[in-house]
Amino acid sequence: TTTSPALEIRGLRKSYGEKEAVKGIDLTIQPGEFYGLLGPNGAGKTTTLKMVVGLLTPTSGNISVFGVDNQRDPVAAKRQTAWLPDEPMLYDKLTPLEYLEFVAGLWGIDARTAASRADELLTRLELHEHRNERCEGFSRGMKQKAALAGALIHDPRLLILDEPLTGLDAAIARQVKDLLAERARAGCTIILTTHIMEVAERLVDRIGIIQHGQLLAEGTLAELRQKHGRDGASLEEL
Ligand code: ATP
Q1: pTM here?
Q2: Which of 16, 71, 198, 235 qualifies as a FRET site for 172, CA 20 to 30 Å off?
Q3: In this structure, are strands 19-29 and 68-69 parallel, antiparallel, or unpaired?
Q4: CA 1, CA 3: separation in Å to the nearest integer?
């Protein structure tokens, strides 16, 4: 519903055998928020996001996406959500346009809507002139842009990205950041993980710090620096 949070996580836990990767996370993100998850490698960020997008079943706890419990109604929750994994895979033999048409088909989007959304996304990401070239020859950045376009083709209300800017050259990182900021202004809720301080500083509204499977702190970067920056674990080390 319109008054529900975009994402509500309660008592979330996940164990891989003996290893407890996520140890009781509570997190609420409001519609339109741009939220950054920070934390060292192995902290549990990817595991948490995989549960949000329904790739992993929680050991315990609940996740709702716009008021829909994603275990009670996984299809409805997924329809609202997009997931861009760390180092996304593309079908190298497809062109960006074919890839977008393929993904749109999986979502059941009609051909006309798919064509117009693909056109808009490819233009917006400066991939339009490459739309009929196979992805196999693309740089990492161009592949990342094609994957991002694929994540956006069903017009998700909640966009989840794992390290979306890592390894991109400055020009492409700029294009991706601009597109994300534009989507956020248009009301899309965005959650990303990042190690890049400049992203945390300029792009996101609020940050959550995950360490050892728990949410250690939340706030704006300025608030977190004030509370935690001087003593203990430095934010810059995350
Ligand atoms: P990174 O930035 O390195 O991806 P992360 O914060 O996303 O780190 P996770 O990938 O969620 O952390 O990993 C949390 C813990 O769970 C780590 O100790 C990791 O080794 C373990 N883990 C993750 N996936 C699996 C799996 N499929 N099977 C077993 N253990 C796993």
Answers
A1: 0.92
A2: 235
A3: unpaired
A4: 6
pLDDT in tens, 131-185: 999 999 999 999 999 999 999 999 999 999 999 999 899 999 999 999 999 999 9
Residue among 14, 15, 16 whose CB has most ligand 1 atoms within 8 A, to mutate: 16
Q: How far apart are the first and last CA of the chain?
A: 35
Alpha-carbon gap, residue 120 to 137, rounded angstroms:
22
Q: Is the CB of 95 under 6 A from ligand 1?
A: no
Tokens standing for 72?
């009670």
Q: Distance, CA 45 to ligand 1 centroid (Å)?
A: 8
Q: Quick: pLDDT tens for 15-30.
A: 999 999 999 999 999 9
Rounded CA-CA distance 235/115 in Å is 43
Residues facing 81 on adjacent strands:
158
> What ipTM did this prediction achieve?
0.95
